Amino acid sequence: MDDGSLKYAGYGAAVEFNADSNFTNKMTKQGIQMKMSEVYQAIYTKFSDVQWVSVAAYMDVTDQYGNTSSAMVYKTILKSGVASKINWGADQSELELDIVPGLWTTTIISPFLNQ
Questions:
Q1: How confident is the model at residue 6 (pLDDT cuts 50, 70, 90)?
Q2: Is pLDDT above 60 for 2?
Q3: Quick one: which of 23, 36, 71, 84 has the most CB atoms within 10 Å?
Q4: Is residue 56 part of a domain?
Q5: What confidence tens digit (pLDDT) does each residue in 94-107 have?
Q6: How far apart are CA 101 and CA 30, in angstroms?
C-alpha cells in the first residue's frame, strides 16, 4: 500500500476526570460508571467520525505509608463499531448502569472498586 491509497479514517478521543469517593466502594464504582457512560453518550451522539473513545477516572489514593496522590482507578474504551449499535435513546438509568458498562472494554480497574 502506498501513501496515495491512505484515506482519512476518523479519530479517537481520550477523556480523563476526577472521580468522587462515595459511601461504599460499590457506590463509588457506580458513580464512575455513570460518568463514563455520560461521556460516551455525549461524544458518540454528537460526533460521527470518532473511531474510539477512552475514558479514565482518577481519585486520590493513600499508599501503605500514608502518602496521598492522584491515581487512575478505572479506564475503559468504547469503539465506534460497538457504540453505533447502542440505542442512545434508551432509558438513561439503563444506559448508564447496565447497557454501556456491559459493552465497553475495561483496561484498568483498581481492586478496591471490585470489592
A1: very low
A2: no
A3: 36
A4: yes
A5: 999 999 999 999 99
A6: 10
In sequence order, the 6+-apart residues with CB closer than 8 A to the CB of 80 are 10, 44, 50, 51, 52
Domain total in the chain = 1
In a domain, 5, yes or no: no
- Evaluate whether residue 4 is within a structural domain: no
Residue 91 lies in a domain: yes
What is d(CA 84, CA 90) in angstroms, rounded to the nearest whole number? 14
20, three cell numbers: 468522587
pLDDT digits (tens, 9 = 90+) for 65-80: 999 999 999 999 999 9
Find the domain containing 77 and state its range: 10-114
> Strands, DSSP E only, in the chain?
11-18, 50-62, 68-79, 105-109
- Spatial separation of the C-alpha atoms in residues 50 and 66, rounded to whole Å: 41
Helix intervals (H) in the chain? 25-46, 80-83, 92-94
Name every residue whose Cβ is closer than 8 Å to that of residue 75 and which is 6 or more positions away in sequence: 54, 55, 56, 57, 106, 107, 108, 109
pLDDT of residue 9: 59
